Amino acid sequence: MIGLISATAAGAAARDRLAVAWPDRTRVYDGPVGDAVRRAFAECEQLVCFLATGAVVRLVAPLLGGKAADPGVVCVDEGGRFAVPLLGGHAGGANELALEVGELLGAQPVVTTATDAVGIPGLDTLGLPVEGGVAAVTRALLDGEPVALETEVAWPLPPLPFAAAGTYVVRLTDRAVEPGAREVLLRPPSLVVGVGASRGAPAEEVLEVIESALREAGLSPRSVASLATVDAKAEEPGILEAAARLGVPVVTYTAGELASVAVPNPSDAPLAAVGTPSVAEAAALREGGELLVPKRKSGGSPAMATCAVVRRPGRGRLAVVGLGPGARDLLTPRARDELRRASVLVGLDQYVDQIRDLLRPGTRILQSGLGAEEERARTAVAEARRGHAVALIGSGDAGVYAMASPALAEASADIDVVGVPGVTAALAAAALLGAPLGHDHVSISLSDLHTPWEVIERRVRAAAEADIVVTFYNPRSRGRDWQLPKALAILAEHREPGTPVGVVRNASRPDGTARVTTLAALDPATVDMMTVVTVGNTATRTVAGRMVTPRGYRWQEEPE
Ligand code: SAH
Fold it and tell me: What is the Å distance from ligand 1's center to 471 Cα?
């Protein structure tokens, strides 16, 4: 819950805007501000105070408990001009909240946390549990002192300025070691615990066998990624409760899937009960990896739970990121985050230039020219397989006539793939033209570089016959000039000469143009490779200069 506190009428007006926008996330604290701040501090995870920073500093100072426990506090000035995360920038989420509040109120977020300001990801923002001297090691990173990275387990880190050696150390480990004063431990989710349980096995017994296995093997519970078991045990309360207490999900497999896994300690009991000679070991080993703790039984008599622990192979991360049509504000926030999350960026040189300023310092850039698509796809996958965090970029949507399919055709199951959708050219153009895509529509690329012209022509003809709105990508280049007239002629066999046609060049870019013409009047010479051409169907009209395709023949009678 976010507690909202204000003192004056102006503050209350801004406060109410937040309360109305986020009814389920916020609670207004009325009354004398000192009292309100104290109550909100005790009850909420976050506070937004429409008060001077000085006033808030004095009020919360006596309440401070520690970074891990204190709520995040954001101050907004009386004029609603600035949103200042005052306390709990990272752990309390105040930096992020300030961005959100800023967006809502039109206020400038003023983030003063050093790592955010200089473009180094905070060690506590990597999505991994951290232990040890976070403040000391972060300061060393910011001061440019050598900080060494020791990776016992591969995990795709964002770019951080690590040195070959140093007195400060960041260690990626799943072992139960204590951090030194100048050391930070990052806990990657590298351990899979396979569990078996008899019906009605108590959660305590399941937890006990897991925890003792980890303890004796010297492994950290904070690196446990999941509990794995057979699907017949998917609803077993003791397993669910143990997973909830460890804060991890339960992953299940069919008996058949488990029976096919080679294990060191098969037995007859599970074979009779659930149809596989091993549950704990097989479930833990199902995704591959190294068996660190072979099957062991709980201490009960009879023993009702078993477990086995596997260190799974490190997984790289491939993000396939669409950059949108060009304008910076049509690049999604998620795309921006993924670009900053990557330590390796792969893309066409002109797209790299488009977003270079968003990258964190230290990002390795692998750019290549037009025509090197296959090489880019292969490079991106190879880097991810080496355990890196890779972003493969494309303009518009990276899955539309772009890099996603060649890359995923190469990718194996041993990497994680994240897709970030982007605004594709057809949509960017449609928004400029009016509402040409209000009913069924297709995109067709007129490039016959990779597709035989007969195939393209057959598809154009099908769209023509089916009366579907068509957007042509790659419509015309210097060496390919007859395809567009030919495609338009096929459409003209089924559509009137006056059918509206939209021609959009460089949509959303500074020199962009959009115009609406007709099938008969379109001059193909005005079309080039920076352009998309959208041809209306027989119902498409021009209304006040805009292209409009009705949603249906009876659309005005139908509800939205
Ligand atoms: N992945 C891209 C498309 C790549 S194919 C996307 O989703 O938009 C390249 C073709 O896309 C170009 O020849 C052109 O037809 C079209 N295109 C890309 N960006 C454009 C823009 N800003 N304005 C108009 N057309 C564009």
Answer: 11
| Residue whose CA lies nearest to ligand 1 atom number 9 | 474
Same domain for 516 and 404: no
pLDDT at 556: 52
What are the distances in angstroms from CA 301 to CA 201, 202, 205, 268, 304?
11, 13, 11, 19, 8
Interval between CA 526 and ligand 1 midpoint (Å): 16
pTM as predicted:
0.79
- The CATH number of whichever domain residue 353 belongs to comes to 3.40.1010.10
CA distances from 214 to 154, 176, 307 (A): 20, 9, 10
Q: Is pLDDT larger for residue 415 or for residue 557?
A: 415
Q: Which of 370, 427, 473 to mutate to test the pocket of ligand 1 (most atoms within 8 A of CB)?
A: 473
Closest residue to atom 13 of ligand 1, CA basis: 474
3-class state of residue 144 by DSSP: coil
Which protein residues are within 6 Å of ligand 1, measured from CB?
325-326, 394-397, 400-402, 424-425, 428-429, 473-475, 504-509, 529-532
CATH number where 231 lies: 3.30.420.180
The percentage of the chain sitting over the pLDDT mark of 90, rounded to a whole number, equals 79
From the number of C-beta atoms within 10 Å of its C-beta (0-12, 13-18, 19+), residue 238 rates as buried
Please report whether residue 412 resides in a domain.
yes
Q: Which region, left, alpha or beta, applies to residue 417 given φ > 0 means left and ψ of -120 to 50 means alpha?
A: beta
C-alpha to C-alpha distance for 174 and 309, rounded to whole angstroms: 12
311, 330, 352 — which closes off a domain?
311
